[in-house]
Specification:
This protein is mostly beta strands. Helix content is 0%, strand content 58%. The chain has one domain. Strands 1-4-5-6 form a four-stranded antiparallel β-sheet, with no helix packed on it. Strands 2-3 form a two-stranded antiparallel ribbon. The protein starts with a strand and ends in a 12-residue tail after the last strand. The relative contact order is 0.24.
Length: 96
């Protein structure tokens, strides 16, 4: 196998499960932390990976769309990156 492409569905959910300490400013007025609602967010998207095992390289791209957000901004997330594996010691090729 000289290269591999992967595609898939991804998602995440986050919830705040305990209260914050301190006070908040809402429209310039201090508000107790107990009056600010806990936040939650839900997102769905896709991920694509491109893998070159011979070169020890992996590239990826992820896209998330937050379809529900409470007590925080709702938005989109784009992530991309890659990795290269440094092989020390280098593998010895088989003799032919």
């Amino acid at each position: 196998m000289s290269q591999l492409a992967q595609f898939g569905l991804v998602g995440y959910e986050q919830w705040q499960v305990s209260s914050n300490g301190g006070n908040y400013l809402v429209a310039g007025m201090p508000v107790a932390a107990s009056l600010v609602p806990y936040y939650s967010v839900h997102a769905i998207g896709f991920q694509a990976n491109y893998i070159l095992p011979v070169k020890a390289v992996t590239l990826f791209f992820k896209y998330y769309d937050e379809y529900s957000a409470k007590a925080r901004p709702q938005g989109r997330t784009i992530v991309f990156g890659g990795s290269w594996t440094l092989r020390i010691p280098k593998p010895v090729p088989p003799k032919q």
